[in-house]
Amino acid sequence: MKLTYRKEIDGLRALAVLSIVLFHAGFKNFEGGYVGVDIFFVISGFLITSIIIQDHKTGHFSFKAFYERRARRLLPALFTVLLVSMVFAWLWMLPGELTEFSKSLLSVLFFGSNFFFWNDSGYFSTSAEFRPLLHTWSLAVEEQFYFLFPVLLVITQRLTKSIGIAVLLTLGIASFALSVWSSIFKPTFAFFLLPTRIWEFIIGAMAALVVLSSYYSKIKDNRFITETVSLFGLALTIYSILFFKKTYFYPGLWAFVPVFGTALLLIFSTQQTVVGKALGAKPLVIIGLVSYSAYLWHQPLFAFFRLRELEPLSINLTWILILCSFGFGYLTWRFIEPIWRIGTISPKRSFWWFLGFCSCAFILFFFVVKHTGGYLYRLNHLPKNYFQTSWINYKFHGLNDQQCYTDVMKPCRVASFPDEPQNMLIVGDSHTGDFGNTFTNYLNAHRLNGSMFSVLGCGYLSNFKDSPSNKRCSQSRSLLLDLARKNTFTTYLLVSAGELHTATEVDEFKQLVEALLKSNARVVLFEPRVRLKYDPKKAGVLQQNSKNSVVLFDPLVNQPWEKALAELSKNQNFRVFNQSQVLIDAGCGQISCFDGHTKSGHLIYRDPTHLTDFGARVVFEKFDEWNKHATKP
Q1: Domains of the chain in sequence order
Q2: pLDDT above 90 (res 403)
C-alpha cells in the first residue's frame, strides 16, 4: 500500500542532510550537524513502520518484497558512489590509506562498516576527515535495522495492541539506557552500533503508530496544538544542530533532544501548520528528494580533496565541494536511483547482474590492494623502500615476551644485566613508543638495565589527559611516582608530544620531575620535537614539500614552559636533550626548510609528529654522544 506523500518529511530530510554536509565541511556554526544522522534514523523508523503496518493490514506485506524494495532503493546509488571512490582512491591515496580504504569498502559491501569504524577510529577524530567511506556507518546501522525490525514489528502485529506497544517501548527504553551508559564509558561503541541507536528508530516507529491511530485526526484538527508543538519540535531540532558540541557524550541523553524534536515534527507538522508549510517549501523539498544521494557523495568529495591538499581546504573550494555534493546528488537521484525501482523500464534481472558485478569489483579491488601492499608500484618516483621506512613496529615485546606498547599501564622490561647497577626508564606518551626498538638496542650496547613505559595520549602521564571512562593516565602517573619512591630507576627519560602551554599543566609537570629527582635519580627531558603542518609522506608523494612546514608557536605561549625548564635545570640531575635540533640537522639543517625528510628524500618523520625507525636511530645516536658529556662531573 502506498503511503500518502508528505512534503514536510522531505523538508525534514533536507534539514538533516544540510546539517551533516555543513558539519563535515568544517563550519563552526554547525558543530552539532552530526545530529542529522539521528533525524534520518527517526524518519526511517517512522516510514518503515508506516509501510509495514499498512501493508500488513491489507494483507500485502511480504518480507521478500520489502527487502527487495529496500535494496533497489539504496544500493544502486551507493554502489555507484563506491565505484567512483575506488578510482580516486587508487589514484590519490597513499599505500596505507589505500589498504584501509579497501577494507572499509569490503565492510560496506557486507553491511558492517559501522563495526569497521568502531574498531578503527572515532567519528570525531582528526583522521576521520580523510576517510571517504566513514559516513557509510549510518547506512550500515539502517541496513541492520531493516533486517531485524520488520520481523519484530510483524510479530507485535499478531499480539494485542497494548502488548505490542509494550514490547517496542521496553526495547526502546533498554536501548536508550545502554546508549546513556555507553556514551560515557564506551563512547565509540555508543556512537557506531545499532544496540545504542535502535531507540531512535523506535521513537520514529511510535510516532508512526500515533499518526496511524484512529484518534490522530482529532490531534491534526486542533490547530493550536499542531502549531505550538511543531514549533517546539523545530526549535529542539535547530537548537541541536547549532549548539551541540563534538565533546558531548553522544548519543546518550543529548540525542534525546533532536530525536524527540524530529518525532514531534513528524506527528504535528502537518501541511496546514506554519512549520509544515516551511518544511514543504519547494527548495527544501528538492534538497530532501536528493538527500540520500547527496549524503553519499559529500564525504568522499571532502575526504579525497583533503587527502590531495596539504593545507586545509579553502572556503571557496569548500563551497564548490558542497555544491558538487548536491549536484552529483541530483544527477544520481535523477538517473541512477530510478533505474531499478519497481515498475521502471529496466528489466528486474539486470539489477542483480549490477549488484553481482559491483560486488565482484569490490572484492577483487580488496585482494589486489592487499597483495600489492597498497599498489606501491604507482609511486616508483620515490626513494627505494620509502613507505617501508615510514612504518614503525609498535607491537614489539620486551623480556619474557611482555607486551610493551598498548594500554598496559606498567613498565615493560626490555634489557636486563643483573650485575650492572644502572637502571633506565623511558616514559611518556606515544612519542616514547617511537624509541622502543632503538632504546632497547642502546641499552644492550651499553649493558644497561632498562624499561619502557609508554601510555598513549597521556603526555607526561598527566591527570588532565584522563576521561570519565578512562583513568589510565592518572593511574599510570601514580604507579610511576610509587616506583620513584622505591628508588626503582636510576635514570628517567621523559618523552612527550609537545610543550605545555598552560600554567596548570606546567606546574603538574614540575611536580612530577621534582618527585623523580627526590629519588636521587637523573631526569633527562627529550625536548619536544618540532611538529609538521601535514603528513610528510603525502607531501613526498605529491612532490609538494615546501618551506615553512613546521608549526611555530608565539614565544609568549612558551614562556611558562621555558621558565619551568630553567628552574628545574638548577638541579644538576635534571638535563634537557635538544631532540628538535638533532632532527632538523638530519634534514635540511634549518627550521625554515625542514619538512620531515633528509636531503636525499628519505623519511625522518612518519606523520606530522611521530618518527620513523630511521629518525629514532638518528636521535639516539646523538643522545649517546650527548649523554657521555652530560654525565661527566
Answers
A1: 7-376 (no CATH), 387-630 (3.40.50.1110)
A2: no
